[in-house]
Amino acid sequence: MTRIGVVTFPGSLDDRDAARAVRLAGGEPVALWHGDDDLHGVDAVVLPGGFSYGDYLRCGAIARFAPVMSTLVDAARGGLPVLGICNGFQILCETHLLPGALTRNDSLHFICRDQRLRIESTDSAWTADYQVGDEIVIPLKNGEGGFVADESTLDALEGEGRVVARYLEVNPNGSRRDIAGIRNERGNVVGLMPHPEHAVELLTGPSADGLPFFTSILRSLVGAA
Amino acid sequence: MARVVVDVMLKPEILDPQGRAVQGALGRLGLDGVTDVRQGKHFVIDIDGDLEGERHDLMHRLADELLSNPVIESYEMRVLADGEEAS
Asked: Which residues lie across from A82 on neighbouring strands?
């Protein structure tokens, strides 16, 4: 069975839901610990949401230097699929595996809502099970989710099809060009501010629209094997 | 002992909603004519021994990589002389 690691940092909140999403999609979740630099042979990794290290200094700034991250950054550069959700996205930007940064919401409010998104790219390990243009509704909950990057980086992200998802109807946090998620050039690393792991079954989420993130990675890994 | 002061500020082109909120509060409290407020971070770091050579270079690198995020922030670092006040 495909093994997907989920990293727990001090202050992670959504590691259990991420592991549950992996299980519901048909994979085997593997708990990884921030202080352990061994990835235990997993096939992909999810960096979950929460407030790692209390969000002290900047969101993700201290988590970036956790022992697990040094191994993970090298593995991601080698092609290991990594999905960073919310705080995980912030960590990926701090490591510079993804460009740009997440800053304080322009409203200064912590935003918690079911957010409509449009899938903009299926050329990633985590979005292949969507169709470009799919509209999905999944929870969003952040205080520092405003995606910023310089104009040339934004142009490059759009020109290279590396915007994975965009906010629809409301831009909840002031993200430049309504960007909710991006991928790296290779497509193995994806960062997303809203939470697909909270929308994997109708009993507990506003939809099951988030599940394809997790079925996508399982399918792409099986296809690659 | 060495004392290092690092000031971190958002780059000018990055929106600072906290600074904007402070600007609004200053105006509401009667201070007219505030045209801009930018909020940053001020670190005061005390270190045993001298901060020279490789240690000085490492402190600079950590100010760049840990204390600030060069994507959105810039920093200024000063090593204070003995007895100099941090502020």
From this structure: A45, A189
Annotated active-site positions of A, please? 86, 195, 197
Cβ–Cβ contacts within 10 Å for residue A204, how many?
11
Is B29 among the domain residues?
Answer: no
Domain with residue B9: its CATH number is: 3.30.1280.10
Q: Structural domain tally of chain B?
A: 1
Give the per-residue pLDDT at B64. 96
* Shortest alpha-carbon distance between residue B14 and chain A (Å): 8
pTM over 0.80: yes
List the single residue in B14, B21, B66 with the smallest CB-CB distance to A103: B14
Partners of B18 on chain A (C-beta within 8 Å) are 104, 108
CATH number at residue A169: 3.40.50.880
User: With bands split at pLDDT 50, 70 and 90, how would you rate the model's confidence at A223?
Assistant: confident
Return the residue in A59, A104, A111, A173 with the most chain B beta carbons within 10 A, the one to mutate for interface testing.
Answer: A104
Task: Please say if the pLDDT value at position A220 is more than 60.
Answer: yes
pLDDT number for residue B83 = 67
CB contact under 8 A, A57 and B13: no
User: What does the block give as tokens for B84?
Assistant: 């100099």
Structural domain of A30? 3-224
- Give the count of domains, chain A: 1
ipTM of the complex: 0.86
B66 touches chain A (CB under 8 A): yes
Distance CA B17, CA A222 (A): 45
Q: For residue A196, give the nearest of A11, A10, A25, A12 by alpha carbon.
A: A25
Domain that holds residue B53: 2-13+39-80
Letter string b/e over residues B18-38, b meaning 16 or more CB atoms within 10 A of that residue's CB: bbbeebeeeeeeeeeeeeeee
Is B24 a domain residue? no
Any domain includes B27: no
Kindly report, residue by residue over B26-80, the tens digit of the pLDDT.
Answer: 999 999 999 999 999 999 999 998 899 999 999 999 999 999 999 999 999 999 9
Whether residue B86 is contained in a domain is answered as no
